[in-house]
Each structure stands twice: as C-alpha cells, then as structure tokens.
Design a protein that fits this description.
By secondary structure, the protein is an alpha+beta fold. It has one domain: Gcn5-related N-acetyltransferase (GNAT) (Aminopeptidase, 3-Layer(aba) Sandwich), CATH 3.40.630. The protein has 5 helices and 5 strands, in the order βαααβββαβα. A 5-stranded mixed beta sheet has the order 1-2-3-4-5, with helices on both faces. The radius of gyration is 15 Å and the shape is globular. The termini are far apart.
C-alpha cells in the first residue's frame, strides 16, 4: 500500500480536490486551496493517499482538546475515490489516522458522518467505531 502523507504545499492541496469534491460537492476548485489554508491556520491538516500517480483517498482532520473527551483527533472529511473503493485505501487511511491520534497521545478518535451515508457507516462499524452522539445543525 502506498504511503500516506500530509498535503503541505498549495500544489498538494489542489491535487486533493477531485477526490474531496466527491464528499463535498459544493466545493469550487478555484477556492479550495484558500479554504484549506484558512482551515490549516486553525489546526486543520489534510492527508492524502496516492496510488498509481493519483489521489485515491483524502482525510481532513484536526487535533483538539474538548471537555467531553479530552484530547481528540477529529476527522472533518474522509473520502476514497469512487473508482478506487473496496481496494483497502479507505482502511489504510482510517488506520493511519488512528495511529496518528495515538502518536499524538489523543484520548479519543472521532468523526461525524452524514446520516445518508449508509455504506460509510457500515465501514465505520466494521472498524469498531460506534455512534456516541447526534450532531445537530442550524443553517444561518
């Protein structure tokens, strides 16, 4: 399995766009790098997995301290290219994220997943993630 690395340059970030847009279809290519750079200033990190010279999996995450669980690695975005699914890329990314959380001495690993993403939920359950709360949102 190819190595996972952090997207650190503008070119690295832009390279992730096509896969990230599969999860976040409202993203616009010409704004993507700027948005990620803004989030990076707030602690966001973007990891990518390449296979055969293309990005096949992307994860956006942050390490933060929260009252309810202490230090946690929170995954904002996790997606594997539709054309590359069921080949172990998503599992590799998930395991990399969990190892990254452990290396950072996090007490927990967490993510939110859209209620319509049934296949993703089955994937998370297979990897021992459990539903511990509901996420509520009010568009403003």
């Amino acid at each position: 399995m190819p190595a996972i690395r952090l997207a650190e340059t503008d070119s690295d970030i832009a390279y992730c766009f096509d896969v990230m847009q599969q999860l976040r279809p409202k993203l616009l290519r010409d704004q993507f790098v700027t948005i990620v750079r803004t989030q990076q200033a707030e602690g966001y990190q973007l990891a990518l997995l390449e296979d055969e010279d293309r990005v096949v999996s992307v994860a956006g995450f942050r390490i933060q301290q929260v009252l309810v669980s202490g230090k946690t690695l929170y995954v904002d975005d996790l997606v594997t290219d539709e054309q590359a699914r069921s080949k172990g890329h998503g599992e590799a990314m998930l395991q990399w994220l969990i190892a990254h959380a452990r290396a950072a001495n996090c007490a927990t690993f967490s993510l939110d997943s859209g209620s319509q993403r049934h296949a993703a939920h089955a994937f998370y359950f297979r990897h021992r993630l459990r539903i511990t709360s509901f996420h509520f949102e009010l568009p403003l």
